[in-house]
């Protein structure tokens, strides 16, 4: 079911400062910030060749990243994203196996313009998992 690791997401309190560290200290190519109001975040991506790092900053007070940063003020790893060939088939298979899909269970369009779903971290050893249709 799982394809390649698409990205590792890191929640940050200051997107511009975090992007500068990756760009200026590590020499990484950093994309322009992209606001995703439907997900409550602003993101940038860092291409590391075989995958990406996604830096997330809260967008608005209702952002799920706000609660994460309240518990982790310096930021930290938020989720991992895996590609799947068919997101609906993956969802149905996971639900049949007892995994919990967050939200209403319907895919939403993510930062790459593709359908995504999130899976409950308690079902995956404390790690929030995002699935993205490849």
What can you tell me about this protein's structure?
The protein has 134 residues and is α+β, with helices and mostly antiparallel strands. The chain contains three helices and eight strands. It has helices at 15-25, 64-71, 87-96; strands at 2-11, 34-36, 41-47, 52-58, 76-84, 108-109, 115-119, 128-133. An eight-stranded mixed sheet has the order 2-3-4-1-5-8-7-6. The termini are close together.
Q: Using the CA coordinates, give the radius of gyration.
A: 15 Å
The CATH architecture can be named as Roll
Round the mean pLDDT to the nearest integer and report it: 96
Low-confidence stretches: none
What is the terminal-to-terminal distance?
11 Å
Count of individual helical segments: 3
Tally of structural domains: 1
The total count of strands amounts to 8
Order of helices and strands: EHEEEHEHEEE
The global form is globular
Binned, the helix content reads 10-25%
CATH topology tier name: 2,3-Dihydroxybiphenyl 1,2-Dioxygenase, domain 1
Widest sheet: strand order?
2-3-4-1-5-8-7-6
Question: Mind telling me the CATH class?
Answer: Alpha Beta
Give the helix/strand class. Answer: alpha+beta
Largest sheet: 8 strands, mixed
CATH homologous superfamily identity? 2,3-Dihydroxybiphenyl 1,2-Dioxygenase, domain 1
């Amino acid at each position: 079911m799982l394809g390649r690791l698409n990205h590792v997401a890191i929640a940050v309190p200051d997107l511009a400062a975090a992007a500068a560290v990756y760009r200026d200290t590590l020499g990484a190519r950093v994309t322009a910030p992209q606001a995703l109001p439907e997900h409550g975040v602003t993101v940038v991506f860092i291409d590391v060749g075989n995958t990406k790092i996604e830096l997330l900053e809260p967008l608005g007070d209702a952002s799920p990243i706000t609660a994460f940063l309240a518990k982790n003020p310096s930021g930290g790893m938020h989720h991992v994203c895996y590609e799947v060939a068919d997101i609906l088939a993956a969802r149905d298979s996971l639900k049949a196996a007892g995994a919990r899909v967050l939200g209403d269970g319907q895919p939403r369009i993510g930062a790459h313009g593709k359908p995504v779903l999130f899976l409950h971290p308690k079902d995956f050893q404390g790690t929030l998992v995002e699935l993205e249709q490849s």
